[in-house]
């Protein structure tokens, strides 16, 4: 048993010791020249020049490339349209959520007023038989009249703003007609002589 312990303890205790080893060439051996890195088989460089060659495209890759090329204007148009309509849709969704929240906590008497305004629009539709212009004017007019009874302050503000916009549109139309009149009928060659200018 002592022999087994001695054999097992000896190599284990040697592994804990640290010591330095110095290598020196033998004096009587002939001097050999050292090898270069290129001469080692591990670091050998192939003699030929490597060249990158692109693999030929398959028929499937060609057809996919052509499809992508043809669809590119449409995808760009879709991306532009999406980027333009996204803020509008977000504001519309926000308006819907705000309206839903308002209707959940509506002030007292709101729904009866809303019913009367809607009924006024239906009465306006009944009076519009036969004319398309009446269909455009009567229902909003009747609804506006009913709404102005319940919300007079907002109706006055709406009429003021609408009146200013209508005046602005009328003024622009007048200027456009005046410009057309001057361009077409008052050119130097188009002046007609009146009976008094003979």
Automatic annotation (TrEMBL):
Keywords, sorted A to Z: Membrane, Mitochondrion, Mitochondrion inner membrane, Transmembrane, Transmembrane helix
Xref: Pfam families: ApoO (PF09769)
InterPro entries to which the protein is assigned, alphabetical: MIC26/MIC27, MIC26/MIC27_animal
Location in the cell: Mitochondrion inner membrane; Mitochondrion membrane
Subunit structure: Component of the mitochondrial contact site and cristae organizing system (MICOS) complex.
Family: Belongs to the apolipoprotein O/MICOS complex subunit Mic27 family.
Descriptive protein name: MICOS complex subunit
Protein's organism: Chinchilla lanigera
Lineage: Eukaryota, Metazoa, Chordata, Craniata, Vertebrata
